[in-house]
């Protein structure tokens, strides 16, 4: 069962625009910037698909988090996915990150804090990694609304090093809560 506290399973980064990110022993989160040495770090947008149209806008996709529980769900559908392979920077365990409201703060390790900005939209690159995986990361709720299961995006509020095994503490934003949307 997923709750309000979790654990870091893996940390990953890449200095190039590759799809998957390489697992690391630790990563350094830098307030207002992202992950030191990661291609998506910066105060303004760094994702290739958005640079041309929105490159001067604030980067609200500095850190990508993905729940490890999705790997078991995908395995049941015939997909083998490991931490970092879907491009996430922090792989979590024990947190229902997809259901958290926008503005939730995750206190990671001794000092790092990220604030959730929205849901990652599964892109076509996922099918380049494993054909059909994009559809496996999408679902519909009882009302027919699209559910995106490829993680959440965040910005770094407080700097700090993050390592596998670090605890994650959840701080919900004030009410009323706003549901996260695709970013």
Could you outline the blueprint of secondary structure elements for this entry?
Elements: E1 5-13, E2 22-24, E3 27-30, E4 34-35, H1 48-54, E5 63-67, H2 69-76, E6 90-93, E7 105-108, E8 112-119, H3 125-129, H4 133-136, E9 138-140, E10 146-148, E11 152-158, E12 160-162, E13 167-171
Parallel strand pairs: 5-6
Antiparallel strand pairs: 1-2, 1-6, 1-13, 3-4, 3-12, 5-11, 7-8, 7-13, 8-11, 9-10
Q: Could you explain the architecture of this structure?
A:
This protein has 183 residues and is of the alpha+beta class. The chain has a single domain (5-171), classed as PK beta-barrel domain-like (M1 Pyruvate Kinase, Domain 3, Beta Barrel), CATH 2.40.33. It is built from 4 helices and 13 strands. A 7-stranded mixed barrel has the order 1-6-5-11-8-7-13. A 3-stranded antiparallel sheet has the order 4-3-12, with no helix packed on it. Strands 9-10 form a two-stranded antiparallel sheet. It starts with a strand and ends in a 12-residue tail after the last strand. The mean pLDDT is 92.
């Amino acid at each position: 069962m997923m709750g309000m506290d979790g654990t870091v399973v893996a940390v990953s980064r890449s200095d190039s625009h590759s799809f998957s990110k390489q697992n690391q022993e630790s990563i350094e989160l830098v307030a207002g910037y992202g992950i030191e040495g990661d291609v998506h770090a910066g105060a303004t947008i760094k994702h290739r698909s958005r640079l041309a149209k929105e490159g001067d806008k604030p980067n609200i996709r500095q850190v990508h988090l993905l729940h490890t529980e999705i790997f078991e769900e995908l395995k049941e559908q015939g997909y083998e996915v490991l931490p970092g392979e879907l491009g996430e920077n922090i792989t979590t365990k024990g947190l229902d990150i997809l259901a958290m409201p926008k503005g939730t703060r995750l206190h990671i390790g001794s000092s790092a804090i990220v604030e959730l900005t929205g849901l990652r939209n599964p892109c076509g690159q996922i099918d380049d990694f494993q054909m059909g995986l994009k559809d496996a990361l999408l679902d519909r709720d009882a009302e027919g609304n699209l559910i995106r299961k490829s993680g959440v995006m965040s910005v770094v509020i407080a700097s700090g090093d993050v390592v596998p095994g670090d605890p994650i503490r959840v701080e919900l934003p004030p009410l009323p809560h706003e549901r996260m949307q695709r970013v």
